[in-house]
Predict the 3D structure of the following.
Amino acid sequence: MSTLFDSPSFDDHEGVHAFSDPASGLRTIIAVHSTARGPAAGGCRMWPYPSAEAAQEDALKLSRAMSYKNAMADIPVGGGKAVIIGDSRTQKTKALFEAFGRAVEAVGGRYWTAEDVGVSPTDLAHARTQTRYVVGLEGHQGASGDPSPVTAEGVFRGIALCVRRALNRDLAGVTVAIQGVGQVGGYLADKLHAAGAKLVICDVHGDAVAAVAARTGARVATPDAIFDVDADVFAPCAMGGAVNALTLPRLRAKVIAGGANNQLAGPDVGRAVFERGIVYAPDYVINGGGIINAAAEILAVEAGRAYDADWVERKVEGMIRTLDEILGGSAIEGRPTNEISDEIARGRIAAAKTA
Ligand code: NAD
């Protein structure tokens, strides 16, 4: 049996912390990959993982991706992530998120939490009663609110850039297939619709697709058929691993760019994407808007000042410039975008470690 330390996703994590609170039913894993650039920051995901091993593996992969994301967004925080084992539709309680807040507090400020899949600002407000290391809140001077709209804005600008590079077009009339129309996918659908794109959407929850289709006129596909849609862009906005050996041959899009974390089932898939001539926006580069927004709240809280919207805008602009450089580098050097991006991210983290 492979152990935590043997997992390819372990990658010298600084800390992996498991907490359970029988009274509330909380079981959570908080993974801190790196604090070299500052305290680790990354969202909390609530998901009905089939096993503790699956939860741990997801926490490790997501946490390392946060280190890379935060380095690429050039923000003064490291990478970490929390996962809560449970169904966010049926198992959320105030007591569970208070217990989660105590778990975050126990990590002693080396990890700041925020929203991710299945976790809302209301849930985090309960956690915040037990610890100050929570961002993505509303109602105080430094508050940044829900990060999802800023994530979606960055993804929207990134898709426009990829479409310009791959198809030499603007977004009007371009067809985008969105997998998952929750927070990020829903806001993204609104922005693409306003820019004149045609949408095909799917979600495992019928209420989410119905609401987005009603306001954007999107065509609805089943979660399986989304991979076969005749679209220019495939935008994964659900869970990890959407692009894998089985789905890649089915995709007809010339661009893969979306909000989901860990879109590629593995680095080798990135090479296969490149060899098929598809322009891939590395997930942790294009989806950094939300953590930039959350970092603005950390900086504001620590300095006792207001949230700085201009700083967020400058960082989001910088993130899109970085994406442009990676896409340009890939075309010139003939290398997959994910390999170029991983190399830059690892270099920035290593430089921070030795600084
Ligand atoms: P969310 O829970 O609001 O939305 C995810 C949606 O995907 C849900 O509606 C869910 O039903 C759907 N889904 C799950 N599996 C699916 C499948 N197989 N096919 C189709 N739909 C499926 O979460 P979110 O906050 O919008 O996050 C979406 C993705 O973006 C996640 O990977 C998350 O880690 C990533 N992300 C989010 C943010 C943010 O600011 N919220 C920032 C960066 C990255």
